[in-house]
Write a structure and sequence with these properties.
The chain is α/β, with parallel strands linked by helices. The chain contains 9 helices and 10 strands.
Length: about 240
């Protein structure tokens, strides 16, 4: 496994806030990335590693803020062969990192600053069905799930959850869309808007559908300013489904 350097103890302490001991142990074999600085600068520093596709690398992004790194997931997701995880709860992190360490590919995992109340996710990489409905499908990524569930309360919608967006669970999404009466898809991501929109389009290339992708613009400052809070998601979903 390629490592840039052993993470210094202050970084591990920052990792450790709110994370359980198993997660800290799993982090020992990964490379920390401080997303408190512009992600383009981080990628410049990682250039030698990213330019070696044969090297197996596990990178963990932490310290993300809305004004510095909404685009990190999109950038790593564009790298061929990489797995990308956006866990929504601390208990999901340890499992994902252990799987990454045992695998033979490269992985990027982004630690959320805020998360869901409970862990979710079963089989690695598969979308979890949180709620079934017939009026469309909402795919909530990582820490957006609880907000999405509250925002769509009372609506006849299937809600899917994913902590893994690369590889993209095409079978899970297609199955949910075909089971609904309407092929309307709302994608809610806590990073750059549209990061996984092309995956949805490719998955449903033979299924007439509509897609509304929610997320952050390249230079975002606050999630609520762009409709990622409960009120914003609720308003967007209801307007989209009219």
């Amino acid at each position: 496994m390629t490592r840039l350097s052993d993470p210094p103890s202050p970084i591990l302490e920052r990792f450790g806030k709110g994370w359980n001991p198993d997660t800290l142990s799993a982090l020992a074999g990964s490379v920390p990335i401080d997303l408190g600085v512009p992600v383009e600068r981080v990628l410049e520093q990682l250039g030698p590693v990213l330019g070696r596709p044969e090297a197996r690398t596990v990178l963990v992004g932490y310290g993300a803020s809305y004004d510095t790194a909404p685009q990190d997931v999109a950038l790593f997701g564009a790298l061929p062969g990489w797995s990308v995880h956006v866990p929504g709860h601390p208990d999901e992190v340890g499992r994902l990192l252990r799987e990454a360490a045992a695998g033979d590919g490269s992985t990027y995992l982004r630690l959320p600053e805020q998360g869901n109340a409970e862990p979710h996710g079963g089989a690695s990489g598969s979308f979890e069905v949180v709620r079934l409905g017939a009026g469309g499908v909402v795919l909530a990524v990582g820490p957006t799930l609880d907000t999405v569930v509250r925002a769509t309360a009372g609506l006849d919608l299937t809600v899917l959850y994913s902590s893994t967006i690369r590889p993209f669970d095409a079978v899970g999404l297609r199955t949910a869309v075909l089971a609904a009466d309407r092929a309307d898809v709302i994608l809610v991501e806590p990073h750059l808007a549209g990061t996984s929109a092309h995956c949805v389009a490719e998955t449903l290339v033979n299924v007439p559908h509509r897609l509304r992708a929610l997320g952050l613009p390249w230079d975002d400052t606050e999630p609520g300013a762009h409709g990622l809070d409960e009120a914003g998601i609720a308003a967007t979903v209801r307007a989209f489904l009219r």
